[in-house]
Amino acid sequence: MSIKKQFIKTKPVCKVTFSVDAKDASAVSVVGDFNNWDPTVGALSKLKNGTFKGAYDLNKDASYEFKYVIDGAFVNEPEADSFKWNDFAGAENSVLSV
Q: Which CATH number applies to 2-97: 2.10.109.10, 1.10.3470.10, 2.60.40.10, 3.40.1190.10?
């Protein structure tokens, strides 16, 4: 799993690419504050090498809580900028700061 941030000089956004190595998975999504935690909106595309990938333009100077959904299981990003406890889920969420 990894996150790549590309700041765009001409716009107040950061292009964030989420990448998940899940060769045996049939579906992977990224869900979070930026897409109303909707797995259908956050569906990542599966590449031939088994990696799931997707890019999103997120507003700069903000933090977003998120998780991956891998075949229905919620998973944190180990390389997240930080983690935040979520009482609703009873677990920590990954935090992305851009």
A: 2.60.40.10
